[in-house]
UniProtKB/TrEMBL annotation:
Recorded GO MF terms: nucleic acid binding; peptide chain release factor N(5)-glutamine methyltransferase activity
Annotated residues for binding of S-adenosyl-L-methionine: 121-125, 145, 186
Originating organism: Holzapfeliella floricola DSM 23037 = JCM 16512
Name the UniProt record assigns to this protein: Release factor glutamine methyltransferase
Claim: Cytoplasm is one of the keywords in the record: no
Binding annotation for substrate: 186-189
CDD domains: AdoMet_MTases (cd02440)
Gene name in the database record: prmC
Length: 281
């Protein structure tokens, strides 16, 4: 008995994946990654027969997908800003929107030869890793997280990409010492009341501590706004990602706690306000 072709394998399992509530496009993504094919290569080779080991891996991956696992956790890696990063359920899967936050920081500091930067809630280390490579090599980069398990993943990624980044176990600023030129974070900002409208794959796989921030989703920002000035150099700046409906609430919050800061909001590529920068006036 011969094994199925790529097309036959995908077509045969698609109805079950749809019925499970998972995304059918993830089937092709997983298979393409296992075969080291781009989406175009996968289509061009769709009549190619899978080997025994390839088909066995395909069935194992799809079983996990049907059970509700995220494809990145199945593969144990994800892509961010052109880098391949190790991920597991201890860390948030890096999002494309966060690449725009990295680009925001890079555009402001790519010509500055040196400085100190802190990435709060680093998770997989995606933000600090990319910034350590996009900014001048003289920058001193630190990455903090409340989770020791997340820091272990970050350290793995830093090592595999040859990055010298200091890691700190800290609940926001509690274990942070010194001042920085840049503080950046993609913090938890989802309301605890929004679970009913969230993707089940996210709820069932990704760490709640990296997702939720109280009834209004602003718990992190309140604590951050209270103390960030104590950790920034006089000409320093902070950069934050937030939910697209939180702009006005954050404008009021930071206006209250940091009236002497110039706050700038930036839209993402979809036109939604998703990033902010604060600079002391």
């Amino acid at each position: 008995m011969t094994n199925p072709t790529i097309k036959e394998a995908i077509d045969s399992i698609t109805p079950q994946v749809i019925e499970s509530g998972s995304y059918p496009e993830d089937i092709a993504f997983l298979l393409g990654e296992r075969l080291n094919y781009s989406p175009t290569q996968l289509k061009l080779n769709q009549e190619s027969e899978l080997s025994e080991s390839q088909y066995r891996q395909f069935k194992a991956d799809v079983k996990k997908l049907i059970q509700g696992q995220s494809p990145q956790y199945i593969l144990e890696y994800s892509y961010f800003y052109g880098r391949k990063l190790t991920v597991n359920s201890d860390v948030l899967i890096p999002r494309y929107e966060t690449e725009e936050l990295v680009a925001f920081v890079t555009s402001d500091y790519q010509r500055q030869s040196t400085g100190k930067l802190l990435d709060i809630g680093t998770g997989s280390g995606a933000i600090s890793l990319v910034l350590s490579q996009e900014l001048s090599s003289s920058w001193e980069i630190s990455a903090s997280d409340i989770s020791q398990e997340a820091l272990a993943i970050a350290k793995t990624n830093f090592k595999s990409h040859g990055c010298e980044i200091k890691t700190i176990k800290s609940d926001l600023f509690k274990a942070i010492e010194g001042r920085f030129d840049v503080i950046v974070s993609n913090p938890p900002y989802i309301k605890t009341t929004e679970t009913a409208v969230m993707d089940e794959t996210v709820l069932n796989n990704e760490p709640n501590i990296a997702l939720f921030a109280g009834v209004d989703g602003l718990d992190f920002y309140r604590e951050f706004a209270k103390y960030v000035d104590d950790y920034l150099n006089p000409t320093g700046a902070f950069y934050l990602e937030f939910g697209y409906e939180q702009k006005e609430a954050l404008r009021a919050l930071f206006g209250h706690y940091l009236p002497n800061y110039d706050i700038t909001f930036k839209n993402d590529l979809a036109g939604h306000p998703r990033m902010m920068r604060g600079v002391k006036q």
